[in-house]
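Q: You know discrete backbone vocabularies at least as well as I do. I have my own habits and do not want them to colour yours. No explanation is needed for now; the record alone will do.
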Amino acid sequence: MGLFDKCNNVDSKDELIQFIKALRIDLQVNPEEWEILSLAAF
């Protein structure tokens, strides 16, 4: 399941936690696909 699919399926606190973890992993694996790489840059 891709990130966009996971985003559309967040219906609980636990699913939100899993989605945030998936975002973190994606940032680590595919940093070139992210526009903002840190909270400080945001």
Q: What stands out?
A: The mean pLDDT is 91. Residues 3-28 form one domain. The longest helix spans residues 13-29.
